Amino acid sequence: MSPVGGTVETDAADWLLSASDDPGRVRLQWASGDGLADLPVGTVFDLVRMADDIGTAVIQALQRRDAATGPVMLATTSHVLTFLVPPGSAAEWKHWLAGTPYARRRTVAAAGAGRVLRCPRPGCVRRGHVWLTRPGDGLTDSRTLRAALEEAAGRPA
Fold this sequence. Notes:
The chain is α+β, with helices and mostly antiparallel strands. It has helices at about 10-15, 25-30, 50-65, 90-95, 100-105, 140-155; strands at about 35-40, 45-50, 70-75, 80-85, 110, 115-120, 130-135.
């Protein structure tokens, strides 16, 4: 049964809009041009980005752990999965990633305040960007995500 007066996509969009100090601009970006909007990172969420092959293995590791997975977006043209994690997590990730093969090969990266997330409205696919896990039901725990990455890295491809 659908919620009266709204949809799951509307709730997810409202959650994303809460990250912006100008929701009207975000709505216009979603409705025009390429359908992608720039949302500021660092207040509502930080980002952990990884190559889609690694990211897919990480999602499987999270599922094996029965871990809650927050919003995940796929950019098909760049083959990158973006996990939304709690604000402040990017600094921990950058420290942890320093000197790892992930950082050297640029297969995993973190972004915090001062960066933007270019994303479509939930429920839409725009220029190869799609939400695999919709926004609005919490964020992926940063430490759990890192443990899933370490587990995925230990498994044969």
